Amino acid sequence: MKLRTDLPLGWRVRAGVTALVIPILLLVVPLDRLTSGLGRSLARSTHQPPDRRIAAWIDHLLRRLPWPWRHTCLRRSAVLYHLLRRGGRAVELCVGVRRDEANALAAHAWLSLDGQPYLESGSEMPHEFAIIARFPEAVAGER
Q: Which sequence spans correspond to the domains of the chain?
């Protein structure tokens, strides 16, 4: 399958490095510590491609990489959280749980913008999950 090239080369490299590093960090760094570093910057980037193109590129990369980079909702969300927050988007990383049809616990991670799921690409419905973690964490008095 042909590699997508609809992002500028610099962005493909930035996204590729991010998609290689963050999944490894997810294995060794607690999520709350990791997200505090990933979501630090909200500086506006004037040269950032549209968010949907970035998400499509990350999906493309993660679906082609082996474990431990292989596409999961948490890896995808963590990578996009970092890239979009660095680009000035006030996205949140949400993690939720629910019981599935067999009464087993199921989890899902997704991005939220203005309280709504953002750039969701899969069949999981975030509104079906009870949020157990949200990053950045809300400050007292918010939400």
A: 9-135
